[in-house]
Design brief:
Shape: globular
CATH topology of the largest domain: Rossmann fold
Number of domains: 3
Order of helices and strands: EHEEHHEHEHHHEHEEHEEEEHEHEEHH
Helix content: 25-40%
Largest sheet: 6 strands, antiparallel
Number of strands: 15
Number of helices: 13
CATH class of the largest domain: Alpha Beta
């Protein structure tokens, strides 16, 4: 009898996307194939890294509710191993490397599926730690993960690859607001969107239509980090493609559409659930073809791996713009990624198994390369 692969699902985190991560983790817990031994690895909102004393059975995971995951994360039951997690990861990485009783080092986990959205989760930090430890993990490597969280960087790479993007500028928290205002006037005029440069799930996004709106919008964006991205407001539709595979052997779904009834914010998307997903949007075939062609270019430019979502804007003037790539797409009730794959006939048990095997293959190939 073959030994089951021991899969750790890493979720939660201290970022503003904690709740989205827990929802995504629930989707994974319920859809991992039966032939895996599944271990939860959670990080509470207070930064406590936590493990279960036992693997979670298939039956237990099928009966699980979202509230159960939140309760497990926030409790400190006697059967759990907990570790205070320094937000800089410096103390954590030192502890990880030197403590022999740390679960990840004593052979309890064969591969990890990280589903921590946002900072400290999909920005390359965890990926770097797992690289150092030699533990296989699902998704993009540390380089591509970092680029996936840096909106300015990925847009510049897209432009270098002749993929159009919405006109934008980047500004720093120390920049004078009057100077930022002048740059907007010189670049694309108002109205515009202001967003944190390294956040996801529409956190910290505001619209500014005047100089007076700008100051508050910048303050909101800078509350998430030292850089903000300012983009010309595009009136149009958000279209998204699902990527599955490697840079050299991958599947792309046709574009789906996200429709919001309110403002384009985290609250509208994930709290009020004011989002509609359309798997077969009414768009010309030529547009679908162009989006898929741009997506193929971005797969290579950004070196995507495992699972990713590639987002575009289709303006009312019939222009296509690359918006951003999401290297750890959400798995919530409104998330297009799993829906697009299932619409293409690729069901969760299959693609989850596939990306886990890809993670283990990459890890094996890198070890062989290092030995040679």
């Amino acid at each position: 009898m073959n030994k089951k692969i021991r899969l750790g699902i890493l979720f939660g985190g201290e970022s503003g996307e904690h709740a989205v991560s827990v929802k995504s983790a629930l989707y994974l817990f319920k859809n991992v194939p039966k032939d895996y031994e599944v271990w939860p690895i959670g990080i509470s909102e207070k930064g406590v890294l936590k493990f279960s004393s036992d693997a979670w059975t298939h039956e237990f995971r099928q009966a699980m509710e979202l509230s159960d995951l939140h309760s497990w994360l926030e409790s400190a039951s006697p059967g759990a191993f907990v570790l205070p997690l320094d937000s800089s990861f410096h103390q954590f990485s030192q502890f990880t490397i030197h403590q022999e009783n740390f679960y990840l080092l004593n052979g309890k986990i064969d591969v990890i599926f990280p589903i921590i959205h946002g900072t400290s989760g999909e920005d390359g930090r965890w990926q770097s730690i797992l690289e150092v430890l030699g533990i296989p993990y699902v998704g993009c490597d540390e380089r591509s993960s970092m680029i996936g969280m840096d909106k300015d960087f990925q847009k510049r790479l897209a432009l270098q690859s002749s993929v159009p993007v919405v006109p934008f500028i980047r500004c720093h928290i120390n920049d004078k607001k009057e100077e930022v205002h002048q740059r907007i006037l010189e670049s694309f005029q108002y109205p515009c969107f202001i967003k944190p440069n390294s956040q996801g799930s529409s956190l910290g996004i505001s619209e500014a239509s005047t100089k007076e709106n700008l100051a508050k919008a910048l303050d909101d964006a800078f509350s998430y980090g030292e850089y903000a991205l300012i983009e010309k407001k595009i009136i149009g539709r958000e279209l998204e493609c699902a990527f599955l595979g490697t840079e050299h052997d991958f599947i792309l779904s046709g574009p789906g559409e996200i429709k919001l009834t309110g403002a384009y914010t985290y609250e509208e998307k994930y709290v009020k659930n004011n989002a509609e997903t359309i798997l077969e949007p009414n768009i010309p075939e030529s547009l679908k073809e162009n989006i898929l062609n741009y997506s193929k270019i971005l797969v290579s430019s950004l070196r995507l791996y495992g699972i990713c979502r590639i987002d575009f804007w289709f303006s009312h003037e019939n222009h296509i713009y690359f918006n951003e790539v999401n290297t750890l797409p959400g798995m919530t009730s409104i998330s297009l990624y799993p829906k697009l794959l299932e619409h293409k006939g690729i069901y969760p048990e299959y693609w989850i198994d596939k990306v886990i095997k890809l993670a283990m293959m990459r890890n094996y190939e890198r070890k062989i390369t290092l030995r040679n």
